[in-house]
Amino acid sequence: MNRIIKTVSDEYKSTFDTFVKRNIEILGENLVGIYLHGSATLGCFKPNISDLDLIIVINSNISDQIMKLARRIKMQENKYDHPLFFEKYSQMERSKNGLAGAGEWETLKRILPEFQNKHVLDLGCGYGWHCIYAMEKGASSVIGVDLSQKMLEVAKQKTKFKEVKYICQSIEDVEFPSDSFDIIISSLVFHYIFDYKALIKKIYQMLKPGGELVFTVEHPIYTAHGSQDWCYNEAGEKAHFPLDHYFYEGKRETTFLGEKVLKQHRTLTTYLNTLILAGFTIQQVVEPVPSDNMLHDPEMKNELRRPMMLIVSAIK
Amino acid sequence: MNRIIKTVSDEYKSTFDTFVKRNIEILGENLVGIYLHGSATLGCFKPNISDLDLIIVINSNISDQIMKLARRIKMQENKYDHPLFFEKYSQMERSKNGLAGAGEWETLKRILPEFQNKHVLDLGCGYGWHCIYAMEKGASSVIGVDLSQKMLEVAKQKTKFKEVKYICQSIEDVEFPSDSFDIIISSLVFHYIFDYKALIKKIYQMLKPGGELVFTVEHPIYTAHGSQDWCYNEAGEKAHFPLDHYFYEGKRETTFLGEKVLKQHRTLTTYLNTLILAGFTIQQVVEPVPSDNMLHDPEMKNELRRPMMLIVSAIK
């Protein structure tokens, strides 16, 4: 084995050594080298290691296998299965009130295609609200995929339709034959995905010709800066929302419900043109605003000051 | 004549009276009423009047005529024909060095369609750089429209191709038969246009089936706040770019080359979905970044921190 190992600085030496040791255990002779890299890549391995900005170079014939292994580690460690985080998430409006508690729902509902007699896949289904909705609208079958075991337990309790099947899996690992689905939906998940291009390519394959992909994602403007918080004036009021680092794609470590969460920032250009290059035709691009009946809440009214979400509808 | 006149407050009384008087002179018995309105509408009339946020209600059978008249006033008063502003504009990199001086050019060039044997319309052609480029790439004919007489004088001096025709007109007034053009381009003009939807509808009609529209516009993120300037830290460095008022579409009064300039802010949703609803298929949406050879300039490097421009390519 021809092993090449480099590291950034002494500061990281011991963390790095532990990391290498761990990977040698996992990869054995398949470890060809470990390279340092300027951008975020290892969010999918171990969050505390991701700070190192590493790329592991392995024999390509086992790379798929390794990525799956890495994602299984990620699943074991995913925030949504941490008891405290899960508890906090359960208390959010959108968790308690379902679709009606989500500011974007009225807009998303108008963009979603007809579900009647359709085969549907929901990537990152969480509590299964959209799966249930699709069934209520006459879908033939729905598969919901999520990496959180706890979320799926709740989803299963809520779901009365036997045509809905839940799978506990990282959405990057989803494998279905070509032309399996009429509709693929995904709500607020793609900004966690490291390899968006590979995922879109896979989604395109899994969709039937004329099939539709509708997804919501945190708006690139919202993920760019990293803080995901407003700038406040001296009186403590929200002065404006800060924008920075827009064209520097990659990981952003942000705080959600008091916990550190790792997201992937990418530009609008990347979100849209990746779809177009994969063969999709873009049907709608919408930045949702809360519905009128929510605007009495000052926090919801602030949502008119900057786009937080992007809804994209595309057809194969 | 049944005239209804209302005004906001005493503060604006005298300005308003002058405005009404002027409009009665122009419209005579066709003036049905003058209404106040919460959003920006009269940028196209007189900049100093636009602060009033008025809508003039006139007999619809003469509304086209009146809008043309209003735009003629706007043309007479347009900033680009003010000697001082024009002088400052002439000194900008993009004015002195043409396409090579424009940060977005390398990206735009890749997105522009093949010009060979094509009939081209350039809306807001300015110095005519894109008209000349289209001819160099083999276009059959090019029409450049701009409301600045001074810009067109320079364009005519620069242009050696007799197949290029320049017209001094507001781009909202452009009238050509259906299916007249293979390609319509527009560079950094649509954020000055009040009625984007009407313009896109007209462009769609003027394009042949399969014809392409490529335009650049100031990015909605760049126009939203209004200041179009960074927030600075105590050391005077650019801390971040401020974002606010995003979903409040309408006029923004900003400063460009030391002069007050009136722009129209609209969201990304509006820019893209108006095209889709008009019948276009979106081919590319790109936020350009300066080319590598420009990044030695710290100001250009700051362009990686927030998107300033949007390039859209759409096909009929």
Can you put this structure into words, describing what you see?
Two copies of one chain form a homodimer. Chain A has 316 residues and is of the alpha/beta class. Chain A has two domains: 2-77, no CATH class; 83-315, Rossmann fold (3-Layer(aba) Sandwich). In chain A, 33% of the residues lie in helices and 26% in strands. Chain A is built from twelve helices and 14 strands. Chain A has helices spanning 13-27, 47-50, 63-77, 83-90, 93-96, 105-111, 129-136, 149-158, 196-206, 220-224, 268-278, 298-302, and strands at 4-5, 31-36, 54-58, 119-123, 141-146, 164-168, 181-187, 207-218, 231-232, 238-243, 250-256, 259-265, 281-286, 309-315. A seven-stranded mixed sheet of chain A has the order 6-5-4-7-8-14-13, with helices on both faces. A three-stranded mixed sheet of chain A has the order 1-2-3, covered by helices on one side. In chain A, strand 1, helix 1 (13-27) and strand 2 form a beta-alpha-beta unit. In chain A, helix 9 (196-206) packs parallel to helix 11. The longest helix of chain A is centred in the N-terminal third of the chain and has 15 residues, at 13-27. The first copy, chain A, is globular. The model of chain A is unreliable at 1-9 and 32-60 (pLDDT under 50). Chains A and B meet through strand 10, helix 11 and strand 13 of A and strand 10, helix 11 and strand 13 of B.
